[in-house]
Amino acid sequence: MTNRFARYAIPLSTLAAITSLALLAASALPAHAAAPGTAAAAVNVFIGTGGDGHTFPGASRPFGMVQPGPDSQVRHFRQSYPWAAGYRHEDNSILGFSHTHFSGSGHSDLGDVLLMPYSGATKLEPGYPERPHSGYRSRFSHDEEKAEPGYYAVRLKDNEVDVELTASDRVAMHRYRFHKNAPAKVILDLRSSIYDYAGKNLWSRLRVRDATTLTGMRETRGWAPGRQLYFAVRFSRPMSARQLHNREEAIEYRGFTPPGKTPADKVVVEGKALMAALEFGVPTDGTLLVKVAISPVSEDNAMGNLDEMPGWDFEAERAAASAAWNEALSVAQVQAPEPMRTMFYTALYHSMLAPSLFMDRDGSYRGPDNAVHQAKGFRYHSTFSLWDTYRALHPLLTLLAPERRNADFVNSLIASREHSPHGILPVWQFHGQETWCMIGYHAVPVIADAYMKGIRGFDANKALTAMTASAEYGPYGGLEHYMKLGYVPIDREPEAASKTVEYAFDDWTIARMAEKMGKKDVAATYYKRAQNYRNVFDRETGFIRARKSSGEFRTPFDPAQSNFGSDYTEGSAWQYSWYMPHDNAGLISMLGGDAALAAKLDQVFDAKIDEKVYAHMEDISGLIGHYAHGNEPSHHVAYLYGFAGAPWRTQERLANIMATQYSNRPDGLSGNDDLGQMSAWFAFTALGFYPVAPGSNEYVIGRPFLDKAVLNLPSGKRFTVRAEQLSEANRYVGGVTLNGKPLARTFLRHDDITSGGELVFTMQASPNKDWGKERSARPYTQTNY
């Protein structure tokens, strides 16, 4: 594979050197709030902000509701993929600082309530990156940009302002430092884009409450239709002048303002293209502070949320954000050489950004029915990228995050189902609204895995009812045909092969939870449905294939073919023919034995393919042969050798994946981070094990990439992983001990970890082909080997 990471924008040495900025206000930024040597100080927030990682470098709290950060481009349909997070490290100008961001999604949205400070002439349009001074955007340099968990700072060259951001759960704080004797001015822009504001913005409102406070709202029909967001903005100085604008009639296609248009100075303005130009005189200390609170419910609630941050002490808020991140990241104490240590803690950081809180201080939130509800006994969260995150992100949080937090996630899913007009669990939800993006009913394995691992604090019977309701909702994704035929027919439903196998896995997790709850009839029904993956497996070719209603496999067949809406979801037969993670023994049997599975896996990784084969599919990235690490269907594949008694082959593949698909650079992720899934994969793999089948209560052992890791578990117990003689040359596992005793099996049970203890790997240069060879040593599968 060509090393796609040969062109990094800035080396680690440069990032490490950026510990302060030269400020125009004649003072330097404070040093890192995160103390040297702490987990938060180890994070490189810029990993994934370049290439296709789609992460954002702004400030936030763990799972926080507000995410203030820089946007380098407007969000509209022509830029929905490259600028999904609003910012790309390759850009050299900043549009402004908005307050909601996705971390690593494959689709663009959010970017609410954009603020841009400046001190020169007022310009009401953002302008163009290739034309400096054409609008209110400003050029910047990465040498004058800095970020760490809970904090972001940058110098705006054209606007002559230094910007710092920090956040609590619901409130962002900005600190602007202007040139000496320069007037302090701020643009507030509620438009999503100068091109499509009339299409995405259904309505918006901007209201002046008093000399220091504005409130407003946006209702949009972007990725999630009918999404409402309310906000309150408070300044540390009173406005000396203001202009509120509705630009619906004042914008031509290319963003120029026609002559003769004079905006009115109003107290309230409503429309689809609102913005404000605000002036604050000349601050004696050159500083203007801003607080922005958001709410899913109302402007008044946004005002109430401002009370979460009552003062104006920026350094105190920044320190509190850093402390919150240090507490969250201290679940692991890691010893590893650079850059591995930084990459590990950054992976943990990215794993703790979503699902995000979406509930006001009074417990109210907006559900998928767009009505306001009250959370009782839990904190409502949203932004569930479930097709991605059920695989590793949620299992990681189930293992490391407090039980209450995991119970909050489950209760939020159940509550969303109760408010859903369709009566089913979320599919891909953000800000309480359903997007219907991707396939499967993957809230089901999230709930089942949590229950199987002992997470309580939610009504299990209500949860199981929600799970079966989702699995039996016929109008969704061909389920009526799946329940009748045992597979989704391609002549009735697109992406039928992928849907069939993903439904089968979800069904197995329902069976697991029902069985543990003592509901044998439900378990039997869904264990049977879990075998439906066999109905789309073609023994003649050895691939998962789409079938017609009549039973025939669709022809012609090309296992490398991939198109949106075809037989597979963001993949080909080469990537999807391994998707029965709950029953790999069944796959082995259908392929013809252990050797056949290993040989077929080798074909995946060792294939010499033209990069053009998948070039039309932007999500299929990070290629090693047909293996596509940049997209989720491949994520468990390297671990499958262990099911065939050859874990040493997994060790080889993992070494290659870690070396080529991750790096401590801005484009250090080979695909979308997908709200933490890519990062969670890295965290698990670095520790030495991975949850191939969430709900099995097992982790398949791979190989470690850290010298030592101590997991500080929510129970107060500790689980230590040590790798003796670990080096680049010693990439194979010679032997494993658990609590001082040799471990013959190639998997860990969840209880092995949560009980506390020590897992020790002895690494060596040559493979140990005997360890894990016996069938008794292999991980769980639904059917016997």
Question: Can you give a write-up of this model?
Answer:
Helices cover 25% and strands 21% of the residues. With 785 residues, it is α+β, with helices and mostly antiparallel strands. Among the domains are: 12-327, Beta-galactosidase, Chain A, domain 5; 581-785, 2-Layer Sandwich (GH92 mannosidase fold). A hairpin with a 2-residue loop joins strand 27 (623-624) and strand 28. The longest helix has 21 residues, at 496-516. Mean pLDDT is 92; it is low at 1-28 and 251-264.
Given as residue ranges, the uncertain stretches (5+ residues, pLDDT < 50) are 1-28, 251-264
Shape: globular
In whole angstroms, the N-to-C terminal distance is 34 Å
Mean pLDDT: 92
The CATH C-level name of the domain at 12-327 is Mainly Beta
Specify the biggest β-sheet.
9 strands, antiparallel
CATH architecture descriptor of the domain at 12-327? Distorted Sandwich
Q: How big is the Rg?
A: 26 Å
Count of helical stretches: 20
Q: What is the number of strand segments?
A: 36
Give the class from helix and strand content and strand pairing: alpha+beta
CATH topology call of the domain at 12-327: Beta-galactosidase, Chain A, domain 5
Query: What percentage of residues falls in helices of 4 or more residues?
Result: 10-25%
| Quaternary structure annotation | single chain
Widest sheet: strand ordering: 6-7-8-9-17-13-12-11-15
GO cellular component, one term: cytosol
Domain Glycosyl hydrolase family: 301-764
Domain Glycosyl hydrolase family 92 N-terminal: 43-295
Organism: Massilia polaris
